[in-house]
C-alpha cells in the first residue's frame, strides 16, 4: 500500500517519532481498557498512523487475549462499544508512526502471539538495526511472519526463548542479548506485565502507580493524564517484571555507555513530560536561552512556531529581554483524515493548520523560533506568511543543530539527500527560506539541555552513531 495515499498529512516536512507504548496491571481485577485509551490519547503525539489495545483477565483462562486496533487516531479507531468489548485487568496499548514497515492494518500493534507457553502481547517503540538478519535466521528455522515490522522479530525471539527458560522475563532478557538498536518494550503475558529498555536507553519508558495498579508508559505525561503517580524511569538495559508481588528488576544487561535520543527533549516528547529525571520544558527553555546567547539579533518580538517552538521562544525572550509575543493561531482540529489540497493549492496546506495574527507582526522585526528545519519547505512558507502579514524582518532561530544524517533508531529523519542542511550552508538555507538571518543551536551546547549529561545520541547531527549503522537503509520496509 502506498503510504502517502493512505495517510496524506498536512505537510511531510516534519519529523515523526515511531511509537508510544502503554501498559497497566490492575491487581484489584478492574477493567483497564478505558485507562489504556486515555493513556494512548496522551501519547498521541508519538504516533498518528495507527493504534491498538490488547487486554487479558489474569483471573480467567490463560491464553484468552482480546484486542482491537486500526488505522487512524485513538479517538477515531476506538468507540465506547469497542472499549466495552475489551474486558480484562491487564493490558498493553500502542500508537504508531511507521519508520520501518508499511502503513497497513497488519502492522498495527500490539502484536499478539499464541504459542505453546501461552500468549504474548507486545508493544514496541524504536528501531532495530539487525532486524533483517534476525528475520532471515528465524525464517530458516520455520518462522512465518505476518507483518513487515521489526517488532514481530522481537516477539518471535521472546516466544522462542521462553521455551528454554523458567520465566517470560528471563526470555525477554535472553532475546535482548540478540537485539541491536533501539527498543522500549511493554509486554503482557497471562499473569505478568513486563517493561524493557535497550542498554543505550534511546527512547524513554517509565513506571507509574495508581491505587492498586502499576503502569508502564513512554512518557510521564500519560501517567498524569490517568491520575497515576510517577514511580521512576525504567533504566537503560533494565527488565522490569510486574506481578501481584510488585516490581522485580533485572539490571544485568545495563552498561556504562548511554545514548538517549536528544531529540526527545528538543521536539518529540510533550513539554509536560519528564524523561530520566529531566524536565522536557526546562530543556526547551535552555535551548532558547542558548540561542539568544549564541545568535543575538536586534528585534522587536520573539515568536514560537507552535507547539514545540513555544518554550524555546520563551527561553530566548528571557535571555535576551526581547518581548515574547503570540503570532500564530494553530488549528487543533486538523487530524489524520485531513485531505491535502491539489498541488496547485499546496500553499494553503500550511495556512489550514497555522495562521498569522497580522496585528502582532505588522511593522515588527520578528525572531521566529522553531525546533528544526528538515527539507525547508515548511520554514519557507512560514517565513513568507510572516512577511506577507507585514513583518519587516524575520530572523529564524532553530533549537536544534542542522540535520545532516539519517536516524536508524526510531526517528523518521529522511535520507541525507532530502535534508536541506546536507548539501547547503547555513547562508544558503537562509536564502532558500527567505529569512533575514538564520542561526542553529550548536552541537557543543546540546548537553546543557539535559543538565550536562553526556550520555545522549546526536548521530542525526554529527554522524557519530552509538551502534554501527546498517550498510543499507533499512528504514523503509522489511518486506522483501
Descriptive overview:
The structure is a single chain. With 480 residues, the protein is of the alpha+beta class. Helix content is 27%, strand content 24%. It has helices at residues 3-6, 33-42, 74-77, 80-84, 131-139, 150-162, 168-178, 220-225, 263-268, 280-294, 310-320, 348-353, 358-361, 377-388, 426-433, 459-462, and strands at residues 19-26, 50-56, 65-71, 90-96, 111-115, 118-125, 184-188, 193-197, 206-210, 213-217, 229-233, 239-243, 246-250, 260-261, 274-275, 278-279, 301-304, 323-324, 328-330, 354-356, 365-370, 393-398, 437-440, 456-457. It has a seven-stranded antiparallel β-sheet with strand order 3-2-4-1-10-9-11. Helix 5 crosses helix 6 and helix 6 crosses helix 7 (168-178). The chain is globular. Mean pLDDT is 89; it is low at 1-11, 336-346 and 475-480.
**Into which percent range does the helicity of residues fall?**
25-40%
Globular, elongated, flat, extended or rod-shaped: what is the shape? globular
Q: With helices defined by DSSP (H or I, 4 residues minimum), what is the helix count?
A: 16
Rg (CA only): 22 Å
* Number of strand elements: 24
Question: Quick one: biggest sheet?
Answer: 7 strands, antiparallel
Structural class: alpha+beta
Q: How far apart, in Å, are the first and last alpha carbons? A: 14 Å
Amino acid at each position: 500500500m502506498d503510504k502517502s495515499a493512505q495517510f496524506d498529512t498536512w505537510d511531510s516536512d516534519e519529523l515523526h517519532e515511531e511509537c508510544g507504548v502503554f501498559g497497566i496491571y490492575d491487581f484489584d481485577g478492574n477493567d483497564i481498557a478505558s485507562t489504556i485509551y486515555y493513556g494512548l490519547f496522551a501519547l498521541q503525539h508519538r504516533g498518528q498512523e495507527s493504534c491498538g489495545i490488547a487486554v487479558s483477565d489474569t483471573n480467567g483462562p490463560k491464553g484468552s487475549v482480546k484486542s482491537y486496533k486500526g488505522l487512524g487516531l485513538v479517538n477515531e479507531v476506538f468507540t465506547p462499544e469497542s472499549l466495552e468489548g475489551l474486558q480484562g485487568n491487564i493490558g498493553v496499548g500502542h500508537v504508531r508512526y511507521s519508520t520501518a514497515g508499511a502503513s497497513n492494518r497488519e502492522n498495527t500493534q500490539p502484536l499478539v502471539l499464541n504459542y505453546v507457553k501461552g500468549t504474548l502481547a507486545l508493544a514496541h517503540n524504536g528501531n532495530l538495526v539487525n532486524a533483517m538478519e534476525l528475520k532471515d535466521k528465524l525464517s530458516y528455522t520455520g518462522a512465518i511472519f505476518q507483518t513487515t515490522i521489526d517488532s514481530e522479530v522481537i516477539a518471535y525471539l521472546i516466544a522462542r526463548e521462553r521455551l528454554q527458560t523458567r520465566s517470560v522475563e528471563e526470555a525477554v532478557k535472553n532475546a535482548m542479548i540478540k537485539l541491536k538498536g533501539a527498543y522500549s518494550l511493554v509486554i503482557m503475558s497471562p499473569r505478568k506485565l513486563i517493561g524493557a529498555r535497550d542498554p543505550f536507553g534511546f527512547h524513554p519508558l517509565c513506571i507509574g502507580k495508581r491505587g492498586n495498579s502499576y503502569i508502564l508508559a513512554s512518557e510521564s505525561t500519560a501517567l498524569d493524564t490517568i491520575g497515576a503517580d510517577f514511580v521512576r524511569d525504567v533504566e537503560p538495559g533494565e527488565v522490569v517484571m510486574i506481578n501481584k508481588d510488585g516490581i522485580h528488576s533485572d539490571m544485568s544487561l545495563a552498561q556504562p555507555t548511554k545514548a538517549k535520543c536528544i531529540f526527545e527533549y528538543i521536539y518529540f516528547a510533550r513539554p509536560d513530560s519528564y524523561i530520566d529525571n529531566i524536565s522536557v520544558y526546562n530543556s526547551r527553555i535552555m535551548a532558547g536561552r542558548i540561542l539568544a546567547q549564541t545568535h543575538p539579533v536586534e528585534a522587536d518580538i520573539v515568536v514560537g512556531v507552535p507547539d514545540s517552538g513555544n518554550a524555546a521562544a520563551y527561553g530566548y525572550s528571557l535571555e535576551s529581554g526581547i518581548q515574547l509575543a503570540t503570532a500564530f493561531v494553530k488549528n487543533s482540529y486538523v487530524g489524520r483524515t485531513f485531505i491535502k489540497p491539489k498541488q496547485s493549492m499546496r500553499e494553503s496546506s500550511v495556512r489550514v493548520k497555522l495562521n498569522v495574527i497580522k496585528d502582532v507582526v505588522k511593522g515588527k522585526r520578528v525572531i521566529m523560533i522553531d525546533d528544526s528545519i528538515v527539507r525547508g519547505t515548511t520554514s519557507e512558507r512560514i517565513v513568507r506568511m510572516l512577511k506577507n502579514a507585514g513583518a519587516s524582518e524575520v530572523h529564524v532561530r532553530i533549537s536544534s543543530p542542522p540535520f545532516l544524517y539519517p536516524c536508524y533508531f526510531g526517528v523518521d529523519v529522511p535520507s541525507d539527500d532530502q535534508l536541506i542542511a546536507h548539501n547547503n550552508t547555513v547562508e544558503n538555507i537562509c536564502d532558500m527560506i527567505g529569512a533575514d538571518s538564520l542561526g542553529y543551536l550548536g552541537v557543543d551546547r546540546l548537553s546543557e539541555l539535559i543538565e550536562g549529561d553526556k550520555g545522549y545520541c546526536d548521530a542525526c547531527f554529527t554522524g557519530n552513531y552509538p551502534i554501527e549503522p546498517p550498510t543499507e537503509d533499512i528504514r523503509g520496509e522489511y518486506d522483501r
